[in-house]
Design brief:
This protein has about 110 residues and is mainly α. The chain has two domains: about 5-50; about 55-114, Orthogonal Bundle (Multidrug-efflux Transporter Regulator, Chain: A, Domain 2), CATH 1.10.1660. Helix content is about 70%, strand content about 10%. It contains four helices and three strands; from the N terminus they run H-E-H-H-E-E-H. The chain has helices at about 5-45, 60-65, 70-80, 100-114, and strands at about 55-60, 90, 95-100. Strands 1-3-2 form a three-stranded antiparallel beta sheet.
Length: about 110
Amino acid sequence: MSRMQNFSVSRMNQVRRNRDVASRRKSNCWNQVEADCDRVMIQEDKLGTIPALTGTLLTVEGVARLLQVPTSWVYERTRQRGINRLPGFRLGKYWRFREADVMVWLERQRSEGS
């Protein structure tokens, strides 16, 4: 075997070893993620359902359609302070609203108005 062939064979073996090590690391990392997910699922089962994760999430446009108002009105109500504020939360730059919270807020607005 020539020196060049010997070099390329040893280089190929080194690349294979590095790839195997990387895949094992990935596998171990993934196993850890799965274990963490299982742990969270077990905790969720003990606590019952997590309220923030149940129900339908609406966008600003979805809330506007539900309430039959312009989207600018929804944005205005999210900027208000106090109990008249539309209940919602930010996910990055996006507003999300739980449909049940919006309906409770709407009922409270209706009962306070009468």
